[in-house]
Amino acid sequence: MIEIPSDLHKDLVPLAFLLGDWAGAGVFDFPGAEKCNFGQEVSFTHDGRDFLEYHSHTWVLDAEGHKVRPLESESGYWRVDQGRKVETVMVRDDGVVEVWYGELAEKKPQIDLATDAVARTAAAGPYSGGKRLYGYVNGDLMWVGEKQTPEVPLRPYMSAQLKKVAAAPSAEEVESWARDLGDLPDDGITFFK
Beta strands of 12-152 (E only): which ranges? Predict the structure, then answer.
C-alpha cells in the first residue's frame, strides 16, 4: 500500500511510492569486474520541500549472504514536474556526478531514467552514461541499472529487489534475501515485463 504523508510537497505525490527505507539484495555483473550478489539499503525521505532526498549503500555478499566489502554508495535529489517528468542529481562514492532525466509511466508506479550529464573526478573510472528503471511491484521496490563506458556499450549491470523496512534489516534477513536470489534475472529488466 502506498501512503502519502500529509506534509509531502504536492508536486511529489507521484513519487510517494519511493518514500521510506528499503533493503534487499541484487546481482552485479559488468565486464572487467567480478560478478557478485550484493546487499542494499536505500532511503527516500522528504522535508516538505519539492524534492526527495535519496541515499543508497550496497555491499558485496559472499555465497552465504554475509557482507564482504562495500560495493557502491550514492546520494542525490529527485524532483518531478507537473508533466510527470523526473529529474535526479546523484553523486557516487567513486567520483561521479550524474544528472538524470526521465518520466513516470502512465497508470503505474514506474520511473524510466537516462543520464543527461556526467562529470567525473580524476580518480573516477571510465563511465559515460546509464539508464535506470525503478518500479513498485507487489509491494517491493525493484530497479535495474544499465551503464556504458567508452569501451563497453550500454548494458544492464545491477538489479535488485528491495523490501520496505521499518528498521534496519538484521544480518539474518540480508542473508536470507541473498539465498533467495536464484529467481533474480541477471539483467533485472524482466521484473518490469
Answer: 20-28, 36-45, 52-61, 67-80, 85-92, 96-104, 110-120, 129-137, 140-148
Neighbours of 61 (CB within 10 A): 26
Using CA atoms, how far residue 34 sits from 11, 15, 70, 75, 105, in Å, is 41, 34, 13, 24, 33
Q: What is the pTM of this model?
A: 0.85
Rounded to an integer, what distance in angstroms lies between the CA atom of residue 76 and that of residue 34?
26
Q: Largest Cα–Cα distance in the chain?
A: 47
Per-residue confidence (pLDDT) for residue 173, from 0 to 100: 73
CB 44 within 8 A of CB 20: yes
In 3D space, the residue among 122, 86, 77 whose CA is nearest the CA of residue 14 turns out to be 86
Beta bridge partners of 24: 40, 162
**Mean pLDDT of successive 10-residue stretches along the chain, which has 193 residues:** 88 96 96 94 97 98 94 97 95 97 95 97 95 96 97 96 82 71 60 56
